[in-house]
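We now fix the convention by which a protein and its fold are recorded. These numbers are not coordinates but entries in a learned vocabulary of local backbone shapes. A record is reproduced here so that you can trace the correspondence yourselves:
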Amino acid sequence: MSEICIIVTIVVYLVAMLLVGFAYSKTNNDSTDFYLGGRKMGPLVTAMSAEASDMSSWLLMGMPGLAYLTGIASPGWTAIGLAVGTWLNWLIVARRIRRYSANLDAITVPQFLSLRFHDQRNLLNALGAVIIIVFFVPYTASGFAACGKLFHSLFGVDYMIAMLVSALVIVGYTILGGFRAVTTTDLIQSVVMSLALIAVLSYGIVVAGGWDAVVSNAQSLSGYLTMAASHDAVTGGAASYSLLDIVSTMAWGLGYFGMPHILLRFMAIEDEKKLVLSRRIATVWVVIAMAASIVIGMVGLGMTKAGALEFLSGSSSETLIVRIASLISQHGVLAAILAGLILAGILAATMSTADSQMLAAASSVSQNILQEFGHLKLTEKQSLFVARLTIVCVSVVGVVLARDPDSSVFGIVSFAWAGFGGAFGAVVLCALFWKRCNWQGALAGMLSGGLMVFVWKYLISPLGGVFGIYELLPAFLTSLAVIVVVSLVTPAPSAEIVAEFEAAKK
């Protein structure tokens, strides 16, 4: 009976998402509507859509799993970095990029960079679009993997089948409704995610024997409840968490400045004055959600100590919330419906990110590569068709990449996050705030930052020691240094470009 209630709840949720997509399907008259919702998004939708699309499946799967196995240090410093990054991004980037992109009539991040620097060759458009596709595909794959793990661990459904069904739903409402559907579903999904966190946390504490029992268990574990050490759940030992480790994990916050799907939210708000309210809503929600996620990992370990859960090792730790939801479902019909809502929350976390990524990838191919770089003359109808076809193609490749059920959601997300932060982070900041920056510097910075992510991850990081730092930090710093050097040794921007820069400051 409990399984039926869970399945019905999840099905109702999925159907509701598709209905939202269908409802907005007739509002997309042109590409600006499809990609940016006609720049008519309100402050609440903008804030929650940005953060829901940011807090992907790692919020409800990756982060609790990491806290469960290693203690609070690694996820804690990551959360601090992300919270600071969120606040700074809303504070210094949001208003400027909304005004600047509107002045230039740019509807994608690569297009904004191309118009900002008067890149006649559209090299920034093309390179930016390629980078978005390269890193969004694994990001999307991580979302599909999370959905597959969810249904497989709960119902024993074949991993591939579960993943494919989830992918079809996400693709469905994204293709139908475009940006308005994505942002509206993101708002709904952020509410569902919040309810899921509250329900799991409350139930877990009770089952673990109360908050005192949870804390007592955490204190008894070496290096678990400190920000200066990392716990090893397998051996029971601890390793010191160095300053280098802290800097490395906090570097996650730098990624925000280069996230195309988040920057698009800033560009889409109806009135830049409403960004203050959006910033407050977004920052508060992010801090609370991440704190709750980390505590769930700690509570889950307390439940294991109490005998309510078996020990979850390796990537299975990422199914912690799924296991807790399964326990909740055993307490009657209402509890089973609640469990279904919790699991829908995991789906929400996944979908809210995957849909945004596919939309950004679609705009990159249709708008940036084909029309601007390739100089193809597409009608609005043809442009929307290409965008939708791209979404399908990205999802297919994402499914192929996510076919391994043992893949780590957190690991995949961290690499993609580094890719965007490294390639776009410094470029966007320089484009918005450094008048002397030119297209040569932006192009060189984008290319060097994106390449450094791969070089550091696969060639330098394996060396260990000081080189084991998160690849986002060296990639971001490399990109920034290259932008400055190349911009200063090449001709200064024209008077027209400088005038546009000054106009965006007013």
